[in-house]
Amino acid sequence: MITPEIQAELTAIVGEERFRTDPESRISHSYDATPMFQSLPDGVIYPASTGEVQKILRIASNYSIPVVGRGSGSNLSADTVPSKGGLVMVMTRMNRILELDRNNHTLTVQPGVYTQTIHDTVEKEGLFYPPDPSSMAISTIGGNIAECSGGLRGLKYGTTKDYVLGLEAVLANGEVIRTGGKLYKDVAGYDLTKLLVGSEGTLAIITEATLKLIPLPESRRAMVAHYTDLDAAARTVSRILSEGIIPCTLEFMDQKTIQVVEEYANIGLPKEMAAILLIEQDGPPAVVENDIHQIRKICQETGATHMEMAQTEAEGTRVLAARRNALAALARLRPTLILEDTTVPRSEIAPMVREINRIADKYQLNICTFGHAGDGNLHPTLLTDARDPEEIERAELAFSDIFAAAIRLGGTVTGEHGVGLAKAPYLEWKTGRIAIEVMKGIKKAFDPQGILNPGKIFADTLRTERVGD
Amino acid sequence: MITPEIQAELTAIVGEERFRTDPESRISHSYDATPMFQSLPDGVIYPASTGEVQKILRIASNYSIPVVGRGSGSNLSADTVPSKGGLVMVMTRMNRILELDRNNHTLTVQPGVYTQTIHDTVEKEGLFYPPDPSSMAISTIGGNIAECSGGLRGLKYGTTKDYVLGLEAVLANGEVIRTGGKLYKDVAGYDLTKLLVGSEGTLAIITEATLKLIPLPESRRAMVAHYTDLDAAARTVSRILSEGIIPCTLEFMDQKTIQVVEEYANIGLPKEMAAILLIEQDGPPAVVENDIHQIRKICQETGATHMEMAQTEAEGTRVLAARRNALAALARLRPTLILEDTTVPRSEIAPMVREINRIADKYQLNICTFGHAGDGNLHPTLLTDARDPEEIERAELAFSDIFAAAIRLGGTVTGEHGVGLAKAPYLEWKTGRIAIEVMKGIKKAFDPQGILNPGKIFADTLRTERVGD
């Protein structure tokens, strides 16, 4: 509850325009990109500096008000839904690029900078920030750090975690910490930098980040391989990697996804195929040529029925856009799209896809599967309608079965989308109870009152793992 | 204090031969590779399984006995010196390689496996585990994980942290947690894996690790460049990296180090030079040839007075051995060698080396500096005599000045050796007081009684940073 007294204190920090309690502001910050989760905040506040964030958090601490940090809200785990009310703190005014350090290959930014802006800024200088979540055109780097965003290039280049060298962050009590620095090696105490990355706004509010950049690859080349048989596609993935080639992109689409994307984008995808692989390599031209040549040979030998080689980088970009557009394509078909994020060891991709298909049939659901074959990160995606409670109930049972199958195959309940509200009931399936107790202790070390993004990661109620299915 | 009752309980777990309280066992586990730190444990115990580790820790918890996990004790931060007595738990019996998974490019090992054994095992299969701490012939992987060991290849390939995908670890109360897995993406809760890496045995005892492997580079080529001018060497480093080349090794040695290593190894190093750079590149032969050619050109243009190109891989290995042997060479000269580990942004290497030399002159000390130029990780190394209290006092003042200089230049007090006992008084200079409070809270979440490696990371007494120097 925001009393008039608290309202006055908050307004004194940011001004009337930047602290909103009107219904429009509250409603538009009651949800994020995750379907079926919504909860009204008591107010929405827009700090412009670390100092303002500190002051806001001191007030929130004083009055025990929940605070949900948020950028564009493009996450897919309901991580920025203010499920316990309180304040949504929108970080988009802190959107300055503070320094591009060419000598040390670092970029220092405020949290509200768009991921795409980072790409554009550094690539002009011949540098590269690899993480490329599908939402990168609209996502903020603060959100990417909070979620440890992945993307298509994760296999070769890693995820957001691998590119955060240092952070400035404000604790729940308003104190500021600075971790890491322009340092490629730093073992001074526990690694708070890596702990904050992926902590989903539950430990601190990130107010500045120093990112690691690498040299921009000189060239890139893409290709597509078609399969009438799922296992043949899995064999290709396995062979490519076992021959020592790590492509920068190695994406998988199943038949249902191919059909939907082709209907949407009309780019010549073969709708009768069981699977396609979208493969891209980057690096020095000679290496790229050689790798793509070898990959082509491997595709042939492992049972691809057809291959298309992009002749130019632009053509390659167009081909990969098909994968990037998969979500938009799927979203057109039915009112609600639930995008899941199970990850398995990459040797288990074919068994996992078969499990997903079996479970979809069992519950009579329409699930399309695509994802990052090289790192085992699959996105089984349900096309449904949130207004149909009976179908949604079946969907919950199906996803519960899918998570259990991923765990059985040595996988995890979320590879890159985060736990948030959506996965919290299932977290224990992956980590066990003891690890969750430890994590709660860590949360307490940062935020003893529990005001930062409460209700996320740690579930109020757990799902019981059903056995024998 | 280990009473006869506790002794009986511990002996019941591991047998009489594996729990030792004799003076020889206690003395030989009272120190590690760090000079000037020694403290007797009450006993030394050798578990053979996770189950035994659990039982030992339950007893230690019951009786509040400190437990210091240890491999070979090759760390340089006094991290395995049992400064509060108690048990040294030696993990070397748990030394099995559990699985090499060729499909998923992972290796699962027990903590007592030697780092070198890991290299040999996976390289035979065309795979690569890059971290290469100087102690790798004798260090154990458990120790490497506890310390987040670096090495010569850190710039291009990262450190131990970047290669640990999953852990099994026993908490102080004897409970087991399993983190991560054969997963390249996993955001299920806080990243306990990365938090445990580099936690110096203060959070849990690691009993199993799943390591990430990458394809073994096809070829490698080394060269040496000589400089009469420190800044010219720094310019070379900067130019190489700014042209988009990331060598796998980019090592720096100052004049004093060159002189000592040459006297020891007699490999033709130029004793009159101000600095040399040892440079190695690996990868596909065409890339390596091209990079080395470009690097050679850059060295010339930035002021190297002489260059030597290794004609074969074997010759390159011999050249790099000079750097690997630096420590042994230095150790011959005087009874005590104190190897420091300050790290600065790589743009600050030349200023940092100049600071080190100024400080050495000021305190009339013999400090040789070598290290990893590409990642700014320098090892200023003092040749001294622990039996000379007056010189040791000057040394402490000098190192205190060196750490302060590193912090001023945006650096850290330890890049790869860890905090342990040796750096604990200085940790706050890097992290600030608030972050240390948070770290203590994290420690409490794992080990509420504080029995795991007590006295490490968090200092009993702090150093006051002296200003105006």
Structure commentary:
- The structure is a homodimer of 469-residue chains.
- Chain A has 469 residues and is α+β, with helices and mostly antiparallel strands.
- The first copy, chain A, folds into three domains: 1-216, Uridine Diphospho-n-acetylenolpyruvylglucosamine Reductase, domain 3, CATH 3.30.465.10; 219-328, Alpha-Beta Plaits, CATH 3.30.70.3450; 334-417, Alpha-Beta Plaits (2-Layer Sandwich).
- In chain A, 36% of the residues lie in helices and 20% in strands.
- Chain A has 16 helices and 18 strands.
- Chain A has helices at residues 4-14, 23-28, 50-63, 115-123, 141-147, 154-157, 192-196, 230-242, 255-265, 285-302, 313-324, 326-331, 349-362, 389-408, 427-431, 433-446; strands spanning 19-20, 43-45, 67-70, 87-90, 97-101, 106-109, 127-128, 164-170, 176-180, 205-212, 214-215, 219-227, 249-254, 275-283, 306-309, 336-339, 366-372, 377-384.
- In chain A, the strands form four sheets. Chain A has a seven-stranded antiparallel beta sheet with strand order 15-12-14-13-17-18-16, with helices on both faces. A five-stranded antiparallel beta sheet of chain A has the order 5-6-10-8-9. A four-stranded mixed beta sheet of chain A has the order 1-2-4-3.
- In chain A, strand 17 (366-372) and strand 18 (377-384) form a beta hairpin.
- Chain A is globular and about 70 Å long.
- The model of chain A has no long low-confidence stretch (mean pLDDT 94).
- Chains A, B: Keywords: FAD, Flavoprotein, Oxidoreductase.
- Chains A, B: This is Glycolate oxidase subunit GlcD.
- Chains A, B: Its cofactor is FAD.
- Chains A, B: Residues 37-216 form the FAD-binding PCMH-type domain.
- Chains A, B: It comes from Kroppenstedtia guangzhouensis.
